[in-house]
Amino acid sequence: MDELIKAQKNPAHQMTEKGRAIEEESFRIVDLEAGAHGFSPLQWPIVRRMIHATADFEFKELTRFSEGAVEAGLKAIQEGARILVDARMIACGLNPERLRLFGNEVVELLAHPEVVARAKATGGTRAEAAVAYAWEKGLLQGAIVGVGNAPTFLLALVEAIRQGARPALVLGMPVGFVNVLEAKRALMEAPVPWIVTEGRKGGSTLVVAALHALIRLAADGGVDTSSAFREG
Q1: Is 86 within 8 Å of 127 (Cβ atoms)?
Q2: CATH code of the domain covering residue 206
Q3: Strand order in the sheet with 194-197
Q4: Does residue 30 lie in a domain region?
Q5: Element (H, E) at 33
Q6: What is the DSSP secondary structure assignment for residue 202, as one 8-state letter?
Q7: So what EC number does this one have (predicted)?
Q8: I want to staple 135 with a disulfide (CB 3.0 to 4.6 A). Which of 3, 53, 104, 160 is the partner?
């Protein structure tokens, strides 16, 4: 009963009893069908929610974590870190009430006038220009960066990291065919915490799912409180 009351008051959980029941049953099914895995108790809730969001169990095999990545992400969220994203779709998909729990601001720069002007002047992508702008303005330091769309954003981010940028966590999940594999490999060699989906698969939906999972873990004190996990 105490856990039910806690969930009802916690915007990181579904608002209604029926909503919570559906979500928990979905998690139970994912746990059952996914079977054995090597993820830690902090990693699995993130992978599970990514599977839940896509109905694609291949992410059990594709998702990789650097050492301490989840812990770094939870600390950043709890400290109110900025969340910088490469696509408006991610910003729109994040639940405002959950973001308000720790005061995490979401920043998406592709339509910023200075970013657009820089892209036109250089002939590069707006994604590249957005990273350059964020690096110059100090927006990368200590931020959680979510990349679900543009490999050029991720490649530019890795270059900024080589120059000294230090985001708290990078979710490297761009989808596509050009420079996707190269961008993800580059991130996995970078000296920052990261969560990556290997191969061509990725997308904004996955970044949103991973961020919501991190926020829920942060709100629950780093413990997965879903009945599915406790029973498993």
Answers
A1: yes
A2: 3.40.50.10230
A3: 63-65, 194-197, 169-172, 144-147, 83-85, 106-108
A4: no
A5: helix 17-34
A6: -
A7: 5.4.99.61
A8: 160
pLDDT at 2 over 90: no
Q: How confident is the model over 69-128, as pLDDT tens digits? A: 999 999 999 999 999 999 999 999 999 999 999 999 999 999 999 999 999 999 999 999
The CA dihedral of 48, 168, 149, 35, to the nearest 10 degrees, is -20
Residue 107: CB atoms within 10 Å: 16
Both tokens of 109, joined, read 């720069």
The rounded percent of the chain whose pLDDT value lies above 90 is 80
Which one-letter amino acid corresponds to residue 78?
Q
Query: Which residue segment(s) compose the domain that 96 sits in?
Result: 59-222
Q: Is 115 exposed, middle or buried (0-12, 13-18, 19+ CB in 10 A)?
A: buried
CA distance 68 to 74: 10
Q: What are phi and psi of 83, to 5 degrees?
A: -115, 110
pLDDT at position 3 is 47
Active site residues: 52
| Stated pTM of the model | 0.89
d(CA 183, CA 171): 12
- Per-position DSSP letters for 135-180, written without gaps between them: HHTT-STT-EEEESS-HHHHHHHHHHHHTT---SEEEE---SSSSH
Whole-number Å distance between alpha carbons of 226 and 20: 10
